[in-house]
Amino acid sequence: MPRILALPRAIPRGKSHVYDEALRVIAQDSRRLKNELRGIRAKIAEAKADEVDGLRKKEEVLDIQSQVNLPKTRWNFVNGQWDLSKPVYRHLAEKKWREDGALDLVMERVYQMSVVPDLLPAIHPTIDLRVLFDEPPPRSTFLRSRVKRRKLAVEAGSFLLPEQTRQPPVLYTTVFHPEERFYTLLMLDPDYPDEETQSYKTLLHWIHPNIPLSSTFTDPLPIPPRPQTNYIPPHPQRGTPYHRYTILLLQNPGGAKLDLNPQEYLNHREGFDTRAFVDKWGFSLDKGGPGGGVFMWREVWSEVVSDIYQNTLRLPEPRYGRQPKFDMYGEVKEMKKYT
Fold first, then answer.
1. What is the pLDDT of residues 69-97, one digit of tens each?
2. CATH 3.40.50.300 holds for 102-313
3. Which of 172, 214, 297, 325 is deepest in the core (most CB within 10 A)?
4. Model-level pTM?
């Protein structure tokens, strides 16, 4: 078991009248709110069915307010000794995620690199989604096949090597609802070349529906190694700009299971319409709605992509780029100047 740290007193009693008075006021306020909380719980026991939901919300607010300013609560949270089954710690965890920069960084990259609106008109994350891939390979070719690489957390918007993403990522989440709800996972590439239109289309790399999550779930996402729709590793084509690989973890409507068969999307990976998919299955991305999580990173072509085409996709590797300009003096330049 992890060692439980004792709560130290910042200033010994009697050394600072202001500090002692602050602790007294906090404790007094907590007792007052707990008394009010007991009254709400008594009302819930006698309330009519249509009144219970409103009282439950008030109960949770009072439960948080009665504990959030206590030194012990703050100490436990800062030192990782918290339990997300308790409303006060869920509140503090969500507040930290929203205000300390983690959410801001993801949203900055998503909007700065035009994932929104290229994939979706808008998205308002409600869960913290973290992505881990293999660390970069050693420079030594001798060590590449002899060193076991660790999984490292990826910074949103950063560049990864195709070699790092050949295997599916390990995904961690922090969700802020105590009850179990189901989510659907999508991994997309909005920068897949479309030769017909001389533009780009979306490629579906991975889909897995009905992933159960709750605030007490701390393990990696429970996704089988080979889900029904196999993971296709990122393979940015030679001659194309960087690709914006995006993972969406969307809460199912009502948090319930969906009768979604990934197999129907297996043969239609190219040209995947994210907006139509969201509309068809009723996912809500509106502000204040259930939302979900989002994450993105970037990749460019490397020699590993050729191997992915040959051994994983078993397809001829395309090559893109601008047509070379016609040089009217090409033949002259190849002639010997002096004979």
1. 999 999 999 998 889 999 999 999 999 99
2. no
3. 297
4. 0.88
